[in-house]
Amino acid sequence: MKKGPARFVYFLNKLQVLLDKANKQKNPALWLYNNDARTPLFMLEGLAKLYSQMHNKKKFSKLKEQFKLLEDTLGAIDYYDNIAKDIIVNKKIPPTVITYLQAQTREKIQSLNELLIEKEWLSANNGRIKKIQKKLNEVDWLKENEEVCAIKEFYGEAIYNITEFIQTEAYHFDNIESDVHELRRKLRWLSIYPQAMLGCIQLSPNKITPKHLQKYLTKEITASPFNKMPDGGNSTCFLLLEQNHFFSLSWLIAKLGKIKDEGLHIVAVKEALQQTNSLTDIEALKKSCQLLGVKQLKLQALLKEAATISKVFFTEQHLENLVIGIKMIKKI
To answer: Which of 79, 108, 137 corresponds to the end of one domain?
Structure first.
């Protein structure tokens, strides 16, 4: 049985429902942003990213870029909008900074509206989705067991690339975006793939929890819906991931996310200050920290914290122990 097409169809249908509703709105882009269109796009991008490395690379790479462009534009809206909303209550922040961030939000919304029209996402006959479905029908899909073996190999390569990235940085981070945010992006895909694959990736519990793993198994992590795998349905072949190491991965993603968000607030205000005043990088950074009520060394402290927790995580080799193997079951 070939299960690949059904995964794309599942999330394409979810996206199509959102697009149909957005098409009836005065501001489709804003509606999509407010109604979490990023989630099905993340899943579709993850599927295309994964399949592009398993087979039909050219077709899936093109699909990945289509989904990524839409998701990135939604992400840019989210970046400026959330920071503007977070700091608007801060009376120290000059109105010009808030105005700049809000203007950037509107600009990104307009960019998305233009993209939706240009790429036919909102066409009356569902042009873009139909083109994608046509491409999917041309794919030479793998059988279920072949696919799971390919996913296992893909995970191994992804883990190798992440460890290579962190070793290149030598646990020394200089930039929130290119270091912390980039590492988190790479790690996050490892947790997105199981959700996108709709059940062929499952967690394998371990009754014994080594002491060094216990610090990661917080209630917030173990109870998170993102750490509950989709039902396997009628699948007969599964890739098994070790549950505690998957939880530790989830913990690091969440922790780096909080550090990244705090750091990007400083970066965004700094950007706004430089766009509305004649300030050098150093002057704008100092002013940004003052306005946000943090010490100027805060950004360096955040980078150091991210490096420290990452070093512990990678030294404990959680990723190397994440993939257990493949499990086959016989249907009666």
So the answer is: 137
